[in-house]
Amino acid sequence: MTLLTTHNPIRPLPEATASELMRIFIDQDTDALLVGACLALLAQRVPEAQELAAFADALSAVAVPFPTVPAGAIDVVGTGGDGASTANLSTLSALLLPRFGVPVVKHGNRAATGVCGSADLMEALGYDLSRPISDLEKDLATRHFAFLFAPAYHPLLGRLREIRKRLGIPTIFNLLGPLLNPGQPPLQLLGVAREELLAPMAGALARRASLRRAFVIHGKDAEGKGLDEASIEGPTLILPVTDGRVGTKLVLVPRELGLAAPARHALRVADRAEALAVARGLFAGAAHADFRPAVADAVALQAALGLHLHRQAGLEALPDTLRETRAQIDRGFPPPFATPEVQP
């Protein structure tokens, strides 16, 4: 018997089988070719909620633990894989939220298939990805922000990085990353690149005992293509999760929120250097030459959704919260770990 005959993922797997398959993936003795074949097969279908939860639980069981995070802490994260090459909207909104007193425990990694991952941007901004846990705890207490570099907490996943890069397609690990925050924050804003992933990702989050509230979101750009973030170009679908229950789907329309249509490709960046320039322009405020109003709108929208989770507020007040976050961006905001090089 081979791995593909005993754990063939072409069809949904029972939870116990999914857990065992993940343990096989991270076993150093498992043939890399078989792992790649399994990942390619998994990528051909939408995983079910119980599979995602079982995969995540198996990985969390062997992860480096992180101490208890503050009540009201949030992670803002996307699955990636939308191919849109936008600026780092989730990361930038995570850097904005501490200005409103929201503790942020951001879990992220370098880009696997995209232009600039959250860790790539954080490192370029001068953040030390190797900060010890004791320092990160202090950061959360004093600056309301900590960035947890995924490889430091999930060392057994290191062998899979080269396999994923060679495959060159989004894999199940794009979906699992947002479920693996070792801080287990009680709030989460989670963007998915494909509409059909809304329900399984929301269902997986609902199975997390530590989670209190979440929005699983999926946006559409001006051409109707999917985005793993709230969109300022087209509608955004939202599945709320509250205390283990998935709620009713909601739809946000940017024009109803007072957001003007952006120029074509206004959110795109070509490379890490441009992603860094966009971030610094945002930190510096509306008067800076590198300030991009469309990026500011998009970051303000993500941050406003995060604020609503933190404040336990209904989305009917979202336009007011959006104006609040946008006004802060216009004024500029140093990131919550600011060094002289990244002060506005």
Topology summary:
Blueprint: H1 3-6, H2 15-26, H3 32-42, H4 49-60, E1 74-78, H5 89-96, E2 104-108, H6 118-124, H7 133-143, E3 145-149, H8 150-153, H9 158-167, H10 172-176, E4 187-191, H11 198-206, E5 213-220, E6 226-227, E7 236-242, E8 245-246, E9 250-252, H12 272-284, H13 293-311, H14 318-331
Helix pairs in contact: 2-4, 3-9, 4-11, 5-13, 13-14
Question: Alpha-carbon distance between the termini?
Answer: 60 Å
Q: What is the radius of gyration computed over CA atoms, rounded to a whole number of angstroms? A: 19 Å
Helix content: 40-55%
Regions with pLDDT < 50 over 5+ consecutive residues?
A: 340-344
Work out the helix count: 14
Report mean pLDDT, rounded to a whole number. Answer: 93
Sequence of secondary-structure elements: HHHHEHEHHEHHHEHEEEEEHHH
The major pleated sheet works out as: 7 strands, mixed
Count of distinct strands: 9
The structure class reads alpha/beta
